[in-house]
Amino acid sequence: MPIQVIVPEGILTTDAEAEVFGKLTDLLLRLHGLTGNAFMTPNIIGDVAVVPKGRTFSGGRRADIAVVELKVPSFVLPTQELKNAWVSEVTTIIEQAAQGRIRREHIFANVVHAIDGTWGIGGTAYDNGALGAAISAKAA
C-alpha cells in the first residue's frame, strides 16, 4: 500500500522523515487490527518527496504545505470513521514532526481507493480479493 509524503525542503529533518513514515505505517496497521501482520507490514511502502522551497501552493499562492497520499484497495479504510481517524492522526503526526515549521491547516491527507487494482508484490500480481486473502492468511 503506497504512501507518499510531499513536503517542501526544511519542513522535516531526515530523521523526522523516517519517523513519520514509521508512524504512518504503524497507524495504517493499527486502524485495521493488523499490527505485526507478516504480509501487510512489509508491503506498506512509499517515499517522502521533498520539493524545493517555494514550489508548493495553496489557494493559488506559494505556501508551505504537506500532502500525505495513501493508495489502497477498497477494503482498506472503508468507513468514514476509519477515514476520519486516518486524516486526523496523519495531520497530528506531520504537525508534531515538523515542530512548528508548518501550520496545521496546511497539512492535507487523502486516500485513493483502487476499486479492483493490481497489486504487484514480489513478482506476483494480486487483485483486491487475492490481496485480502494473503493478508488474512498472515494475520498475527
Topology of helices and strands:
Blueprint: E1 2-8, H1 14-31, E2 45-51, E3 57-58, E4 61-62, E5 66-73, H2 80-98, E6 107-114, E7 119-121, E8 124-126, H3 128-137
Parallel strand pairs: 1-2, 5-6
Antiparallel strand pairs: 1-5, 3-4, 7-8
Q: Return residue spans where pLDDT drops below 50 for at least 5 consecutive residues.
A: none
Percent helix range: 25-40%
In the sheet with the most strands, the strands line up as 2-1-5-6
What's the SSE pattern? EHEEEEHEEEH
Q: What Rg do the Cα atoms give?
A: 16 Å
End-to-end separation: 18 Å
Global structural class: alpha/beta
Mean pLDDT: 94
Largest sheet: 4 strands, mixed
- Assess the beta-strand content as a share of residues: 25-35%
Tell how many strands the DSSP assignment holds: 8
Q: What sort of overall outline do the alpha carbons produce when their principal axes are compared?
A: elongated
Continuous helix count:
3
